TrEMBL record:
This is Peptide ABC transporter ATP-binding protein. Belongs to the ABC transporter superfamily. Residues 8-242 form the ABC transporter domain. The keyword Hydrolase does not apply. GO terms for molecular function: ABC-type amino acid transporter activity; ATP binding; ATP hydrolysis activity. CDD domains: ABC_HisP_GlnQ. Pfam families: ABC_tran.
Length: 246
């Protein structure tokens, strides 16, 4: 029996902004159907690592492959990559001039050429899943932050990605709205979606992650299951980090 290939592989990746080395020789992999949480202090390179996976940032050297697609500037590869990878940001980035429904149907209609009625039926189904069906005809300004973020998740899912990247999806939210977004993410995790999540929500990480990666100054300092990471933490640097967050 052959072992399945990892869904994403990152091999000896380096990234600098000017003289500042932000990622140092990072090698790791992400398996299909698994949830990985990336932790680390501000500036440790978490966003840069995530953004390189769908070419929002270019790596300087090393190799990244996503579902067999080598991440590069090749137009065909980029197109294929962007279809497979969905991303949700700290700032929800919804199109302000479009209704919720039009936000969700926009990419399927433009990029995939999905007919309007079909795109809208699919969008309504996704909006139901994130609890936003009743708000389909509103504009983003009429929604709370938590509601906007749930729409942003539905919008990313509308392209039927094979992996979802989340960069601090609840960091810009008022505390009372964090749970409704995390609940949607938990439901997505249970459905078997491959997810890579940068977050400071430790309870969520412990409950949902299959694996925790800790980045420190551009290097992976630790890669462990959540139980070992949170309950048997022996690294002083990470213990200090956890102490600050808790
Ligand atoms: P994190 O998400 O862990 O807080 P980032 O990946 O955003 O860290 O950033 C890592 C380092 O790279 C930080 O020091 C940040 O200031 C720097 N950096 C990130 N993006 C850029 C950029 N576009 N230009 C210059 N420096 C950047
Ligand atoms: Mg960041």
């Amino acid at each position: 029996m052959s072992t399945p290939q990892p869904f994403i592989t990152v091999q000896q990746v380096q990234k600098a902004f000017g003289a500042h080395q932000v990622l140092r020789n990072v090698s790791t992999h992400f398996d299909a159907g698994k949830v990985t949480v990336i932790l680390g202090s501000s500036g440790s390179g978490k966003s840069t690592l995530l953004r390189m996976l769908n070419r929002l940032e270019k790596h300087d050297s090393g190799t990244i492959t996503v579902d067999g697609i080598e991440v590069s500037d090749d137009a065909k590869a980029l197109n294929a990559l962007r279809r497979e990878v969905g991303m949700v940001f700290q700032q929800f980035n919804l199109f302000p001039h479009l209704t919720v429904l039009d936000n969700v149907t926009r990419a399927p209609r433009r990029v995939r050429g999905t007919p309007k009625a079909e795109a809208e039926a699919k969008a309504m189904e996704l909006l139901r899943k994130v609890g936003m069906e009743a708000h389909a005809h509103k504009h983003p300004f009429a929604l709370s932050g938590g509601q906007q973020q749930r729409v942003a998740i539905a919008r990313a899912l509308a392209m039927e990605p094979k992996v979802m990247l989340f960069d601090e999806p609840t960091s810009a939210l008022d505390p009372e709205m964090v749970k409704e977004v995390l609940d949607v993410m938990k439901q997505l995790a249970r459905s078997g979606m491959t997810m890579i999540i940068v977050t400071h929500e430790m309870g969520f990480a412990r409950e949902v992650a299959d694996r925790v990666l800790f980045l420190n100054q551009g290097e992976i300092l630790q890669d462990r299951p959540p139980e070992a990471f949170f309950d048997q933490q022996d690294n002083p640097r990470i213990r200090a980090f956890l102490g600050q967050i808790a």
